[in-house]
Amino acid sequence: MTRRVRAQPKVLVIDDEPDLLELLELTLSRMGLDTERASTVAEAIALLDRESFDLCLTDMRLPDGEGLRVVEHINQHGLDVPVAVITAFGSAENAVAALKAGAFDYLAKPVALEQLRALVKQALKVPDKPAGATPGATQLLGESAAIVNVRGLIERLARSQAPVFVNGESGSGKELAARMIHHGGPRASQPFVAVNCGAIPEQLMESEFFGYRKGAFTGADADRDGFFQAANGGTLFLDEVADLPLAMQVKLLRAIQEKKVRKVGSTAEEPVDVRIISATHKKLPALVESGAFRQDLFYRLHVIELAMPPLREMQEDIPSIANAILARLARGQPARLEPDAVAALERYAFPGNVRELENILERGLSLAADPQHISAADLHLTPDADEEDAAMPPGDKWPLQDYLDRVERQAINEALEKTRFNRTAAAKLLGITFRAMRYRMERLGIK
């Protein structure tokens, strides 16, 4: 059903509590919205089949069933109506179930009017076009089944406000996927703030996330907003969220649940309206099992999982992705991969995924005598780890220096990936000085 254009947007409100219905209708009318009410699932479905609405607000518990039946009816009949559910306080499981069923967002009782107004404003901006059609948004390239499935899920997630957990190896495009979700949804015109949780010193985390008041600590010579305030109205992307210390996980959980933050040095909380998208290359369930990550925070973040496929599972897409990246790196100048270079890329395992592919192509473009004829030799691909292991009998560790160099190279590359190639931060992570880091990179030929 196509949404009908009308003078005022119309909202269907479903609840069996007359007082709450009155409050919702009064708030919505003050926002210039028309409302229609229903007190049961049956009434709501009859109205949805008879009229068109721009938004649906439904309680989870109704006299003749669950509000999830309304969500499912809207999805099954292809109705172009974002639906938000109202859940009892503390009923996180119901909220998660509704979001997974296709709800746009949820509100907890008692309903906070400022949160209601923010939700309604976001819902009425949900685009009719899918996320993939968003102009100006960088896209995930490829036509393999794995990446086509990812793009389809991104389109659906863009229309929701559900927290999304992006899982995948380093360099597989987790942040790009998060940006596509943001740019394809109603928050596209608002900020997208990306935070690398592993690169922030533990003692600065609270002030970086929530801001601080003047005089809160030495050096706080003026009020400053944190990441939550910077992303207000938009999306906060928490990359490498598994690296958050337990003390910060508690504070983050409260901010997500209450939708409020308190600046360091302040006694008052301030409301924030952000959508949370998180990511890590680590196995978060295993960290929950070991006690390194809070289970309650895991359930808040891990509402819907988006798994990014590694490049080695998209082998047929490597030529097209490589050519697209090369064209961008060449900045309009002619550049082309020779057949042997394409063949070498197709054989390579890409432990660093698309980010490593981009680094390899940038190196080849710089080292090739003629950028229009980039050969396999220009790419300087390192031997595949499996090939190296095959050449060495299992259990043998000699020549010892070669073995130690491989281990050291892997550790440095992982640290660089984790810190987004910030050598100073990578050196700190490895427990060595920046000077030692630079020397080791030069000795091992790490670019």
A few lines on this structure:
The protein is α/β, with parallel strands linked by helices and 447 residues long. Helices cover 45% and strands 13% of the residues.
Summarize the structure in words:
With 447 residues, the chain is α/β, with parallel strands linked by helices. The chain folds into four domains: 10-123, Rossmann fold, CATH 3.40.50.2300; 144-307, 3-Layer(aba) Sandwich (Rossmann fold); 311-381, Helicase, Ruva Protein, domain 3 (Orthogonal Bundle), CATH 1.10.8; 388-447, Orthogonal Bundle (Arc Repressor Mutant, subunit A), CATH 1.10.10. Helices cover 45% and strands 13% of the residues. It has 20 helices and 14 strands. The chain has helices at residues 18-30, 41-50, 68-76, 92-101, 113-123, 145-158, 174-183, 205-210, 227-230, 246-258, 284-290, 295-301, 318-330, 339-347, 353-367, 376-379, 385-391, 400-418, 423-430, 434-444; strands at 10-14, 34-38, 55-59, 61-62, 65-66, 83-87, 105-108, 164-167, 192-196, 235-239, 260-261, 270-271, 275-280, 304-307. A five-stranded parallel β-sheet has the order 2-1-3-6-7, sandwiched between helices. Strand 1 (10-14), helix 1 (18-30) and strand 2 (34-38) form a beta-alpha-beta unit. The longest helix has 19 residues, at 400-418. The termini are far apart.
